Amino acid sequence: RRAARATTMLLLCLSSAASAGARSLLHRDAAFASVAPSSRRSDAPRALSSPRRAGRVGRRGSSFAAPRPRATSLPAASRTAATSDGGATTTSSRLKRTAAFGEWARENDIKYAGVQVSSGDQSSGLGLYATQSLSPNDVVIQVPTKLTLSVESPTDYNAAMERELFASDPKAYRNAPWWASLSVQLNYYDKVNPVNDGAGGVSMRPWTDSLPRAYDTPIHWSESSLDELQYRPTSEAVALQKRSWKDQYETLASASPAFASKVSYDDFVWGCETARSRAFSGAYSGSAFNPIPYATTAACVAAYLGLGMGTVEQAANGAALVVCGSILKDFVLPKLLKVQKYVICPLIDMANHAGVGAAGNVAFEYFADGFSLAALEPGVSRGSEVFIQYGPRNNDQLLQYYGFVEEDNAHDVYILPPIREWNVGALEAACGRKVGPGRLEKLDRAGLLGKAAGGSDAGPSSSDAEAANDIGGVVLARATGIDPAVVQALRALISSDAEWDDAGEAIGNFAAEVSPENERAARTAVRTAMEMELEGKATSIEEDENLIRALSGAKGGGVDAEELLPVKFRLEKKKLLREAIDGMR
Question: What is the pTM of this model?
């Protein structure tokens, strides 16, 4: 009876762990996680979910949608699109490069049905479109793990590529960030050797040929085009990106003359951009289900009992150790160690982003040892594009790493200058209050004034969100409003002497409203700062809207992305500011 109870508990543990981790959700990665064609990724150009939430789905069936003939056949129609392949390339040129991709996918056990790689309207690039109506939980694509490119953070590397390119100095490659490591893999298959030995000698050439060869992202823009963003945080983030990528390439090139001779800096940047715009990420990093340990354990238990070597309880204890060890290795330790896995999946990487209303999500299938794309509620109608959500990404991230701007982005943010750069005199005049002695010094010591401009000598930040706000600017989010810490700081800054004394001159005592008068003054200060920020722009909302209409109607719709995207980006930022100002009145 004790053995039965122990076995039951183990099965429950295994079931719980498997249900929690067997289908780990992955999310498209980027800088900082249903969109119109203007929100398409730059390689297509396409549209853009938080890497933490690609859309929750309950129990999902493992059966594929009913097959359609040649589900991934590519359309013969040629549509001109402002793609990242130089901006003037046509979608047909990309389709020619992907001609062999569908056959390659079928030959290498990539299962798909109910979707095809196709192009949308005149302004669209390539994406995944439904060839039939898809019901919620239909699995439409499944890619074997062996065909994917992957890397784990903080440290991971490809042993075969290390031997061939970095044998003399492997440390530089092993310590490379995930996007640089994936760039090495991409360039290895594209420039050095297309054969994937880990996949049984499969040539990756048909897949690499389907990838975009250039991107319309700001790292390629001129300084004057970056100035047209009218937004310092993104300009600074791009400058940091340029330095970081250049330094990383020089580190790898100096460690390996073989790498430097085969992969140029431009090739490396292409690989980094491909990784940043097409890789998925997730916290799960254990291995796929392996039945051998369980079968071996069952055989050992049978032999142990059959030969009378011990009791049932002893055999159950031994089996429990094996099962628990497997669960610990595959599900518990990766989460405790916060290991992150980054994966590029052929065919699934064709899916575009929808910030709201995504129709599909990507997951790792523990028992199938592969990655799948399945339809979400309420399903997908025939002929519609199957969007996924890359994550709750703001337009800073979308533009910098994906090359597009999402209109009315629910996840967008505006980073105002830090409080230390605000015009205190203008705030005093608007609030009808004076900033008392000791307030600024206290806020500075508490770290609430931000950093002085140019005062940070730090290298690349650990996250893209930090890189875009390295000086501690005031964050305004469309979803949540102004940062509560900023409101707290302003309550203290414009507090009366009586309010300051009642709070014991402690900033922490202003975390909640101290009086209606103080709250009104703090809100007025925030609104005034946002109004001054908006009024300081070189162009107005109306002027930007008129310019976008003029640019979009010119040259037969083939406008240069470097000319159009800065205007779209700054317009969205100004709209966010205007919404926040109106909400504070």
Answer: 0.78
